[in-house]
Amino acid sequence: MSLYVIVGAGATGAAAARLLADAGEQVRLVTRRGGGPAHEGIERVAADASDPARLTELTLGAAALVNCAMPAYDRWPSEFPPLAASLLAAAEGSGADYVMLGNTYGYGPLDGPAVEDLPMAPTSVKGLVRARIWQDALAAHEAGRVRVTEVRASDFLGAGAYSPFTLMVGARVLSGEPVHYPGDLDAPHSWTYTGDAARTLVAAARSDASWGRAWHVPSTSGAPVRELAERLARAAGVPAPALGRMARSELVEIGRTDAVMAEFPEMLYLYDRPALLDASATVTALGVQPTPIGAVLAEMTTAAAESSN
């Protein structure tokens, strides 16, 4: 039995903690309030992960430190770099391997599927933050101070997932409201199931082949938003959604009174064209297969029904 320290108990962090605990590993789940799933193999600890001394203390003896935490979307530039620096310092100071949950922002706009060896070429503020975090961690790896890998996801799906689709499309489809989406409704798009992200994190943490590079989470589907919304409606047994495209000016106007929504305009390049992940390396080397989209949509509809009761 090995100890794994996971920071962050969102949908992916909680799923990773359960996977490891179910496999008989010891899990220490660190959040500000000590939350997370109740499981005999999961020790829930309330601590500030931006405190490197405290986090190092909690990580001593761990096989790996897994970062699934991030600040509020509108506070990335000020809060994400020091949080990431604390996690990297804790991994170095404790001797644990370091697994990061990331995304595709650092690649910038692409004309084809994203592959893991693309250079960092961000064009957004949040992309610059993500690229810097990865480059700092990779530099520590190359200097021999710590073993590092990053698992990169696309937009999340699943119960409790947080993404433009779940916020602006899924919730409205399930409640029978019209959908106004700030992107191309018919552009192919890779979607990441939170459970698959968790399985990729666990596989990367356990593999000697994973270090010093990034891995893409195998996508549960490449369906455009329109198709995904219609399939979600059928899975939930609700009427087909009325779908329309939101103008950029409308999104900007919403952002005047919503700090999180104000962060979306700079990321619209991910939604106005095809945005696909090539995860063939993950499938081959780490053995992670994507969960069928039907099972993911069923989970989302069940969770929505339970929350409304």
Strand content: 15-25%
Q: Look at the structure and name the CATH superfamily of the domain at 3-154 and 194-217.
A: NAD(P)-binding Rossmann-like Domain
Tell me the major beta sheet.
7 strands, parallel
Shape: globular
- Count of discrete alpha- or pi-helical segments spanning 4 or more residues: 10
Q: Bin the helical content.
A: 40-55%
Oligomer: single chain
CATH C-level of the domain at 3-154 and 194-217: Alpha Beta
Gross CATH architecture of the domain at 3-154 and 194-217: 3-Layer(aba) Sandwich
Uncertain spans: none
Strand order of the largest sheet: 3-2-1-4-5-6-10
Order of helices and strands: EHEEHEHEHEEHEEHEHEHHH
Please report the total strand number as a whole number: 11
